[in-house]
Amino acid sequence: MVDNKTGYRATAKWLLASPYKVRPVADLVRSKPYEEAIAILDNMPQKGAILLRKVVISAASNALNKNRKLGEDMLYVKEIRIDEGPRMRRVWFRARGRADMLMKRMCHITCVVDEIGKKTEA
Questions:
Q1: Is pTM beyond 0.70 here?
Q2: CATH number of the domain within which 87 lies
Q3: C-alpha span between 105 and 85 (Å, rounded)
Q4: Strands of 7-15's sheet in order across
Q5: How many domains does the chain have?
Q6: pLDDT digit string (tens) for 103-115?
Q7: What percent of the chain has pLDDT over 90?
């Protein structure tokens, strides 16, 4: 999706990962150049890094397909948002006939990449 004021966007929804665990990974690549962000995400062991990498690559490919003059070295990660999704509630059986609720959290990831040095209208 293209929005000229905000850059090139990609979204992944209903990912089975807790937003609380994905947000610290997103903080490391926010406002970094595209190639540096991918290098950081490639070398991280967290599950959230794999999910974020896919979304950042998708946003960059949206930018490269819409604007033929852009190159990968001209992009940077302008914005990454990790929003909470719905929670799946599961029954977790415990000792002596009791049960607890197990929350499986989901998140929505939105990434915006933009051109380095692009002037925005105020």
A1: yes
A2: 3.90.470.10
A3: 7
A4: 2-3, 7-15, 99-115, 75-93
A5: 1
A6: 999 999 999 999 9
A7: 84
